[in-house]
Write the C-alpha cells for this entry.
Amino acid sequence: IGLFDLQTDFRLIVMLMVVAFIASATQDIATDIFAILQLKPSERSLGNSMQSAGSFVGTLFGTGVLLIAYHYFGWTNLLVLLACFVVFAILPLLVYRKPVERDAVTSERVRLTDIYRFFAEKGRHKRVLILLFYYSGIIGILTMLKPYLVDLGYNVKNIGIMSGIFGTSVAVACSFAGGFIVRKIGRRLSIFLFLSLSFVTALWFLMLSYTTPSSVMIYAGIALLWGSYGLSTVAIYTTSMDVVRKGREGTDFTIQIVITHLSSLIIAVMSGKIADVTGYSGLFLIEAGVCVLTIFILIYSLPKEISNEDTETAAR
C-alpha cells in the first residue's frame, strides 16, 4: 500500500510538472509578443539583455538560493516563497495597462500553416543555419563541464559554487552588458564578436585539457563559458525579433528559439558520446571547429539579415 501511494504521489508530481511547463511556455510566448510589440528596434538589444539576464537570475535562484532556502525552511515554506515570487511578477502587469493596437492582421487566429510559411519565406534557410549552429560551439562544453570538474577532483559542493553560482552570475552580468554592447557597435559586429568569444572559450578548455589546471584557470574558463553563453543569448534573441512577421510575432520568435533549443539538445546528447570516444580534448577541439564553421555560416547568412539601427540611433 505504501508503494502504491508513493507511485500515485509521484504521478501527481509529474502531472503538476507538465502543467507548470505548459504554463511557463505560455507565459514566455506572451511575454515575447509583448516585448516585440512594445520595443522599438533600437530598444530590443537592451530589452533582450534584461530578459536574458532575468532568465539566468532565475537559474541562479533555482540552482543555488532556493536549495539553501529548502535546507533551512523546508519544502512547504519554499513553495510559499515561490508563490510570493509569482505575485511579485504579476504586480507590474496590474500597474502597466498600456493597450496594444490591433488591426485585421494581428487579430487573425494563428494556424499551423503559419509555421510552414515562416520557413517558406525567401532566404529563411540562412536564418535557420544560424539558429542551428550559433550555440553549438559552447553547448557541448556546458554539458560536459560538471563531469569534467568531477574528473578533475572537485566535489559536488565545489561544482555547485563554481558553475551554479559563479558561472550563472557571470552569465547575468554579461547578458546585461550584452545589450549595451549591441546598442553601441550594432547587431552585425556584435554577433561576430560574441561568437569569437565562444571560439576563445573552446580553445581555453582545449588548453586546459592538456594540463593540470589550477583553480584560477578553471574559474577563468567557467567565466568565459558562461559569459559567452550570456552574450550569445542576447545576440540570438535580439536578431530573432528582427525577422518576425506582423501579426505572427510570437509564433515566429518562438519557432526560432525552439530551433536553438532543439539544436542544443542534440549537441548535448552527442557531446557525452564524443567525450567518451575522443576524450575531453577531442570534444573541445571539435567545439572549436564548430565555432569556426559558424563564423563562415555568419559570413554567408548575415548580409541581408542584420540591422544596424542600434548604432544609428546611438549616434543620433
